[in-house]
Specification:
The chain is mainly alpha-helical. The protein has a domain at about 55-145. It is built from 3 helices and no strands. The radius of gyration is 38 Å and the shape is rod-shaped. The two termini are about 50 Å apart.
């Protein structure tokens, strides 16, 4: 028959506790915590370095894109100014009202076509710049997400 322990016997059963085992368990727990902290720090450091590189690449690409768009704008202004000056020269040689209307109508049609082409060119260049600017950030995000997945 099993003997029933009393409350006082359970209270004094602590004497069977071995402090050597507790120290070893605590050491293992602490070493595991340090190892996990180092691993998390390394991942965070790598992600931070990648993010810094991404920001630098993004800024360089944005600057290059801004220069490209600026050059396209200057080219469009130059083209429009040249066309307008040529039109003014042509207007100086007009001999009749009919010739004036014909010249003006032709000029407006050509300007509308040129403007549509310029808008198309700006749109394509802006889209390309936006894609190029977003590539480093997108790659950095995907890399960071991959590295920080729960394992």
């Amino acid at each position: 028959m099993a003997t029933k322990k009393t409350v006082t016997e359970d209270a004094f059963a602590f004497a069977a506790f071995d402090p050597a085992n507790m120290t070893e368990s605590y050491r293992e727990f602490a070493e595991k915590g340090v190892a996990q902290s180092k691993e998390a720090y390394d991942k965070l450091k790598t992600a931070t370095e990648d993010a810094t590189k991404s920001v630098e690449q993004t800024l360089e690409t944005a600057q290059a894109g801004t220069v490209e768009l600026g050059m396209k704008a200057i080219d469009a202004v130059r083209t429009n100014a040249d066309t307008s000056l040529s039109h003014i020269e042509a207007l100086m040689g007009v001999k009749s009202v009919a010739q004036l209307f014909e010249l003006q109508t032709s000029f407006v049609r050509k300007q509308v076509e040129a403007t549509a082409e310029q808008v198309k060119t700006f749109h394509e260049a802006t889209r390309k710049v936006a894609e190029d600017v977003s590539k480093p950030a997108k790659a950095a995000y995907e890399n960071a997400a991959k590295n920080f997945k729960a394992t």
